Structure formats: C-alpha cells, structure tokens
Amino acid sequence: MSFHTIRSLHELRKQHKKIENPNVEIDKSLSKLDRFALSITNKVGSMGFFLIILTWTVCWLGWNTLAPKEMTFDPFPAFALWLFISNMIQIFLMPLIMIGQNLQSQHAEIRAESDFLINTKAEQEIETILMHLENQNQLILQLMDKIEKVEGKMKDQP
Going residue by residue through the chain (158 aa), what tens digit of pLDDT does each one get? Predict the structure, then answer.
C-alpha cells in the first residue's frame, strides 16, 4: 500500500462524522405532546380504529332506526346527536393527525438525509478502494514486468 493510499484512507475517516441512527435522534427530540400526537395518528390510521368507528356507527344508526320509538335516543332520520359526536371526534382528531403527520414527515426527512450521508460515505469509500485496487494493479504489473525481465535474462545465460 502506498503512502498516498494510506493518507487518503486516514483523510476519508477524518472527513466523515459518525452517522447516528435517525430514529434515536428523533426519539430524543420528541416532547410528550409530540409523542401523544404520533400515538393518536398511528392509532387513528389503523384498521382497528376504522372497525371501532364502523361498529359504533352501525350500532348507533341501527338502534335508532330499528328499535321501538320509546327506546331510541337519537331520532331518525336526523341523528343530530350522532352527527354532533362524530363532528366533535373529527374536530379534535384532525389537528392531532396533522401534527402527527408533520412529525412523521420530519422523521422521514431526517432518515432521507441520513441515507444520503451513508450513500455519500459509501461512494467515497468505494472510490478509495478502487484507487487502492488500481494502485495494486499497477504494482502487480510492474512486478510481472520485472519477473519477465529476470526470467528472460536467466534464459539468455548458459
């Protein structure tokens, strides 16, 4: 290995800071409210939550449509209480989901930046390895030439 290659390896190591796990980085920076918003976003965006809302809606509307009049509590066809509760759920969840999506977007950007840094580092390391291999190729060719010359001289001697 030539001095130039050794020097470039050391320079390469010095040039790159240690890449940290973006998930740990994000996790450290989140406040309790951010964690709450992310938790709500993840839960609301699940099939479980959809099935809960669907079941609640079908039961509510079914009961108030099919049950005897004296047992209903939200008259058909207006379902004013159901609409009120549904709208309240939507009003409270909408900003929380938007906050959670913004946090997820920031997380994705940090992961993308980390991926870019890793790819850049890998590219430079590959370039250094290729330079090292090229240097070795040249040394091998020089050695082969010297060996051929020595063999040629040995054949010429009686």
Answer: 455 555 566 676 676 667 778 888 888 889 999 999 999 999 998 999 999 999 999 999 999 999 999 999 999 899 999 999 999 999 999 999 999 999 999 999 999 998 998 898 889 889 989 999 999 999 999 999 999 999 888 887 76
Which residue reads 């509760």 in tokens?
85
Long-range contacts of 29-35 (CB under 8 A, 24+ apart): 30/103, 34/99, 34/103
Q: Are 57 and 138 a contacting pair, CB within 8 Å?
A: no
Identify whether the C-beta of residue 110 lies closer than 8 Å to the C-beta of residue 22: yes
Angle at 94 between CA 88 and CA 98, to 5 degrees: 165
CA 21 vs. chain centroid, Å, equals 10
Contact 100, 37 (CB under 8 A): yes
d(C-alpha 145, C-alpha 154), whole Å? 14
Domain spans in the chain, listed from the N-terminal domain onward: 28-151
Q: Which of 9, 41, 15, 18 is nearest to 107 (CA)?
A: 41
3-state helix, strand, coil in the chain (%, to 5): 85, 0, 15
Instruction: For residues 131 and 6, give the distance between their C-alpha atoms in angstroms, rounded to a whole number.
Output: 11
